[in-house]
# Entry
Amino acid sequence: MSEFGNESVTVIEATLNDVDRALERLRVGTYRSCQVCGTPISEAELIANPLLANCPAHPELA
Ligand SMILES: [Zn+2]
# Structure
């Protein structure tokens, strides 16, 4: 653990949380839809960022 700072651990944990949420959204069928307004997220955007949870109008609430 000493070779990795707490900052790295925090980033990894945040990423794991994002993956968990993406998998949960896949399970319930809301993956590909904005969590805020339900707008479908384009395939190109999901390819660029598979963990994308929101449409471009609501980026700060991901
Ligand atoms: Zn939205």
